[in-house]
Amino acid sequence: MIENKSAAIMAEITKAVIGKNDIVEKILMAVLAGGHVLMEDIPGVGKTTMALAFSRVLSLKENRMQFTPDVMPSDITGFSIFQKDKNEFVYQPGPIMCNLFLADEINRTSPKTQSALLEVMEEGNVTVDGVTREVPKPFIVIATQNPIGSAGTQMLPDSQLDRFMICTSLGYPDVETEIEIIKHNNGQSPLDGLKPVVNAEELLELQKEVEQVFVHDVIFQYVAHLVAATREHPMLDLGISPRGTIALTRMAKASAYIKGRNYVVPTDVSDVFKEVAVHRLQLSAKARVNHVTAEGIISTILESVPQPLPEKRQG
Length: 315
Fold this sequence. Notes:
Helicase, Ruva Protein, domain 3; five-stranded parallel beta sheet; Rossmann fold; 2 domains; two-stranded antiparallel sheet; alpha/beta; 315 residues; 11 strands
């Protein structure tokens, strides 16, 4: 067992990312739960800064790739090149061989290139020329995407979206936060003053501790009922997949862990439901015509599915 350093990690990251404590906490939950993060927002609100802050504070080897229409799968996974002196093909690692891979503007590249991430995000491996290689652990993908409909963008396939544990959005800062950002803009990068709080090995230990957080059967039932509600909703063509069900449970465990508990309560589930569900739901044509949003459906489901009564102690 190692010390729960969630608060120290949060405190350090929020030095660079001002006024977004709730989003920092959700991303930290996803990291502790061993998941990947998708951030969708307009340019210039700090998505890349957020990702790089996590890599600095967690002491992770990070690689960043700018996704453009001409990026090829081998640019991500690496390739084999023939070396005459060895008389054999030698693997040249791609940028994916790191702990934290920042996929910048992921929805600007082709579906063929996006598919290069499917294996590694699910299994932690890359296969090049028939040889499968494991990426370093821990391994996290933090991807940013511009809003759908922006110039040069295309929708990510459902199989890609489903591999992201959560999807979140930073949004514009409020007036008070904007003033703080201006005051802190002294010509230096906000990342320069960040100090590492844990290293990769300690992060792996934290992830193992999150896995051990206790989940009562009534919590499993609550998760299952929420998921079932998305699959049965008349305004949805596609609900949450079993992979999403697992993601919701793991995020709830991380929520409990960050809050200093070794057991999950119903609010741990409801607090992360939106981030886990929003990118997995596919609206029906009727919903789009009536301007119904995924966020609105999620709120309705949370109100309609009763939470189990809290117990004095679970576990």
